[in-house]
Write a structure and sequence with these properties.
Rab GDP-dissociation inhibitor activity; globular; FAD/NAD(P)-binding domain; Guanine Nucleotide Dissociation Inhibitor, domain 1; alpha/beta; 12 helices; seven-stranded mixed sheet; FAD/NAD-bd_sf; 3 domains; Rab GDP dissociation inhibitor; GDP_dissociation_inhibitor; Guanine Nucleotide Dissociation Inhibitor, domain 2; single chain
């Protein structure tokens, strides 16, 4: 392994694999290592045997769930926004050739003990059960404004100088409507956005709408065989452009020169030289800080859930105020149609930011919607962010995966890492105008 590389990447989570692929495409000589013997890290999809060994040790008889290889269980539940940044990266790198996607059929919000379809367009707003008829008219006008808004064109509202609360006030939008628009459409995790500039929230609302328009059912898509297919696809991309992958490689130390700049990585007594190191927080425990914890519960169910319109895959957002919390609860459900479990089963994952000393209890409102649950496992993980931007010593650290239900924050982290490493933002000028290739959608 005594060889010199431009970049050494540690960990095979989605963030690291995307960066590895982008850097390889950009002409960098990349070595990618992981202490695990499988791809994906925290964004892997596990078979049944792996899942029980990691999160339910001691359970001997798992045969009632069928064959282990028929399961591909995500640990970090997220969907892909059809018009979001990850799809732009997939299209830009042509990684879609390695993946097949299906539409996620439903997007729902929890209100007053019931599950409701999220209205995101003015026509849907006029039919929604979430609002009275006068509020439907106001909401429809607001959504029409959002649909027509273009950042680089004149606007009747002074968006750059308004807060989101002021914009809602201008359309006389009531608190209950603000709740589902802010949390289930703009996908904010708390109410802090109301006092912040309106422009980012308007763009979030537009992203949801544009994603919905791509395939017409929901704004989300999801890869066959689970999210673990995503890091593996980018690993293949890197390999095509000369990237080298090594699994099951323990990392002994990161090497630095006298000036404090990184010079290489030592594994099993051998050192690979490099100018840049990229890695997930688990490889740099002294160079990251905690941003709290996320609790997730992975559940197996074998029945349909009331209020979800018999969808095979869907998201439910439980806004914070509905259950007396500071953070929303996110729920994703994926069925056997996506090749993640045997026929008749579905994998449900609920997640939220931890607020108390009993994190498992914080997911109770979500889990109550899915009873009876045949099996479940709780996972509590600490979230980390780097202490510095990495430019001084050439060590660039990614962020942990948050509790949100989509990959937009992960994609932002990827693009930020790329810009810091390369010294310039990713050039999108060669991007195709479509999202996922038609041949990759079913």
């Amino acid at each position: 392994m005594d060889e010199e590389y431009d970049v050494i990447v540690l960990g095979t989570g989605l963030t690291e694999c995307v960066i590895s692929g982008l850097l390889s495409v950009s002409g960098k000589k990349v070595l990618h290592m992981d202490r695990n013997d499988y791809y994906g890290g925290k964004s892997a999809s596990l078979n049944l045997k792996q899942f029980f060994e990691m999160f339910k040790p001691g359970v001997e008889d798992i045969t009632k769930f069928g064959s282990s290889r028929d399961w591909n269980i995500d640990i970090v539940p997220k969907f892909v926004m059809a018009a979001g940044k990850l799809v732009r990266i997939l299209s830009f790198t042509k990684v879609t050739r390695y993946l097949d996607f299906l539409q996620v059929e439903g997007s729902f919000v929890y209100r007053a003990g019931k599950i409701h379809k999220v209205p995101s367009k003015n026509k849907e707003a006029r039919k929604s059960e979430l609002m009275g008829w006068l509020e439907k008219i106001r909401c429809a006008k607001f959504l029409s404004f959002v649909e027509d808004f273009e950042e680089d064109k004149p606007c009747k509202k002074p968006i750059p100088t308004m807060t989101m609360e002021q914009l809602f006030d201008d359309f006389s939008i009531k608190p209950d409507t603000r709740e589902f628009l802010g949390h289930a459409v703009a996908l904010h995790t708390s109410d802090d956005y109301l006092l912040q500039p309106a422009l980012p929230s308007v763009l979030r609302l537009k992203l949801y709408n544009e994603s919905l328009e791509r395939y017409g059912v929901s704004p989300y898509i999801y890869p066959l065989y689970g999210l673990g297919e995503l890091p593996q696809a980018f690993a293949r991309l890197s390999a095509v452009y000369g990237g080298t992958y090594m699994l099951n490689k323990p990392i002994d130390s990161i090497e630095y020169d006298e000036a404090g700049h990184v010079t290489g990585v030592t594994s099993s007594g051998e050192t690979a030289r490099c100018k840049i190191v990229v890695g997930d927080p688990s490889y740099f425990t002294k160079r990251v800080k905690s941003e709290g914890h996320v609790v997730r519960c992975v559940c197996f169910i074998n029945h349909k859930v009331e209020g979800t319109l018999d969808a095979e895959a869907y998201q439910i957002i439980i806004p914070q105020n509905q259950v007396g919390r500071k953070h929303d609860i996110y729920v994703s459900c994926i069925s056997s149609k996506f090749n993640v479990c045997p026929a008749g089963w579905s994998v449900v994952i609920a997640s939220t930011t931890v607020e108390t000393e009993t994190p498992e209890a914080e997911l109770a409102p979500a889990l109550a919607l899915f009873e009876p649950i045949q099996e479940k496992a709780f996972i509590v993980e600490e979230c980390f962010v780097p202490l510095d931007d990495g430019k001084k010593d050439g060590v660039f650290i990614s962020k942990s995966y948050d509790a949100t239900s989509h990959f937009e924050s992960t994609s932002d982290d990827v693009l930020s890492l790329y810009e810091r490493i390369m010294g310039e933002p990713l050039d999108w000028t060669a991007l195709p105008t479509t999202s996922v290739d038609d041949d990759d959608m079913e």
